[in-house]
């Protein structure tokens, strides 16, 4: 049964979700040869085991974070305060996101009604320019750029004929919802999949947990930054905390849209599969766990069309990573005090991932999986973390040189060291 605000009077009909766990797995989003739960009988116990391992890892990290925070509070000579969220930052961010949603809905209506691709492309180009004309600061400006870019890429997906066939047959309102939300909803053969009863409450509860996790990550980062002893270990922990901060902020943003989709009666797709806790390799991280929205879009519009035309998989994958890098360059070039100092760093970060994925797969085929990693998922996750996190400063630099990074600190309550 759909939620109370589902579009029952619209031409779209929503089919019920088979189960909660099925709603959390979308076969067309995953990559490589990882089976979906709909196709694999043995996936349910494997998923349950993965969930159990994830919660154990969460418990360990939260315990370590609380220990670091408590130690810093007990030993610091600085003033320790509880910093409240900044309401003006939230208002600006909310207004910016609302503007992007409205613009993407306009683009959706244009895609639906217009038979002239150039009209759609012209409007899409205008949406890409708008973020650079608005007097927004920090994360609000980048949020407009990110959401507008995703909407424009979805319009290209529709124009190229690579979008799911059910997207149009589901009806106009569902089509507009596809553009309005960066998070996609599930589709079956012809219709949008309805959210199970009470899903919006589960999404809202998960969003609250993510906000609490972000608050802890920000507090731990403050504790580490206030530490007077400079060491490589402290620097590594600080960098790791920053990776978590960015990840959790993205989870807050996408979690809010997932909740809104559930309220409107749609079953949102899974966006994240515990990438920092359960990834067993670089390809597993990027292909099955991190930002599955962007992965799915680029797989449909870049990777699959190229490989179907005979292009090598490594070349198609490298191009997808390059486009992802340019996407982030575009979003974070806003408000840079020195564009020359930050330009190209996000692109380099993503370009570095392509050979890492190709090398990992080649080594696995030729040498197999080392014995240590065959019997320990934890060892795989640690190894994956050690391979990816050292590249994080390339990604973080444009966030830090603008106001994007600093405004994340104003979103939730945190322990501050002044």
What can you see in these coordinates?
With 418 residues, the chain is mainly alpha-helical. It is built from 19 helices and four strands. Helix 4 (117-129) packs antiparallel against helix 5 (139-159). The protein is globular, with a radius of gyration of 22 Å.
- In terms of per-residue confidence, which ranges show pLDDT below 50 for 5 or more consecutive residues? 1-49
- Find the structural class using helix and strand composition: mainly alpha
For the CA atoms, what is the radius of gyration? 22 Å
> How many β strands by DSSP?
4
What is the chains' assembly state?
single chain
Strand order in the sheet with the most strands: 1-3
> What's the pLDDT, averaged over the residues?
83
> Biggest sheet: strands, sense, closure?
2 strands, parallel
N-to-C SSE string, H for helix and E for strand? EHHEHHHHHEHHHHHHHHHHHHE
Quickly count the helices.
Answer: 19
Described by the principal axes of the CA atoms, the overall outline is globular
Helix percentage: 55-70%
Strand content: under 5%
Q: Roughly how many Å apart are the termini? A: 51 Å
Top keywords for this entry?
mainly alpha, two-stranded antiparallel sheet, disordered N terminus, two-stranded parallel sheet, 66% helix, 418 residues, globular
């Amino acid at each position: 049964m759909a939620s109370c605000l589902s579009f029952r009077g619209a031409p779209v009909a929503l089919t019920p979700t088979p189960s909660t766990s099925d709603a959390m797995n979308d076969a067309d989003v995953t990559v490589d040869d990882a089976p979906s739960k709909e196709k694999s009988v043995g996936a349910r116990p494997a998923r349950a085991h993965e969930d159990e391992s994830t919660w154990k890892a969460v418990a360990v990290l939260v315990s370590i974070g609380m220990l670091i925070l408590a130690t810093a509070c007990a030993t610091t000579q600085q003033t320790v305060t509880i910093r409240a969220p900044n309401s003006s930052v939230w208002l600006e961010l909310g207004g910016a996101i609302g503007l992007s949603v409205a613009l993407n809905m306009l683009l959706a209506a244009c895609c639906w009604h217009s038979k002239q691709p150039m009209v759609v492309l012209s409007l899409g180009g205008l949406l890409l320019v708008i973020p650079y004309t608005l007097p927004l600061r920090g994360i609000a400006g980048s949020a407009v750029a990110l959401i507008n870019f995703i909407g424009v890429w979805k319009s290209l997906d529709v124009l190229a004929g690579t979008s799911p066939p059910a997207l149009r047959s589901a009806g106009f309102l569902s089509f507009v919802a596809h553009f309005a939300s960066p998070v996609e909803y599930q589709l079956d053969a012809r219709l949008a999949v309805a959210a199970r009863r009470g899903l919006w409450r589960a999404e809202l509860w998960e969003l609250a947990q993510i906000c609490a996790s972000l608050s802890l990550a920000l507090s731990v980062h403050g504790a580490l930054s206030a530490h007077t002893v400079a060491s490589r270990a402290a620097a590594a922990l600080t960098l790791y905390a920053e990776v978590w901060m960015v990840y959790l902020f993205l989870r807050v943003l996408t979690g809010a849209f997932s909740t809104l989709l559930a309220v409107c009666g749609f079953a949102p797709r899974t966006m994240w599969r515990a990438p920092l806790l359960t990834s067993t390799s670089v390809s597993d991280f990027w292909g099955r766990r991190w930002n599955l929205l962007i992965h799915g879009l680029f797989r449909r519009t870049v990777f699959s069309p190229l490989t179907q035309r005979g292009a090598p998989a490594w070349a198609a994958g490298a191009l997808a990573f390059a486009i992802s890098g340019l996407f982030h360059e575009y979003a974070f070039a806003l408000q840079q005090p020195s564009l020359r100092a930050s330009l190209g760093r996000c692109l380099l970060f993503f370009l570095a991932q392509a050979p890492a994925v190709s090398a990992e797969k080649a080594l696995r085929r030729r040498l197999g999986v080392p014995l240590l990693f065959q019997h320990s998922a934890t060892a795989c996750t640690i190894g994956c973390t050690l391979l990816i996190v050292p590249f994080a400063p390339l990604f973080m630099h444009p966030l830090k040189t603008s106001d994007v990074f600093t405004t994340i600190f104003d979103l939730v309550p945190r322990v501050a060291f002044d």
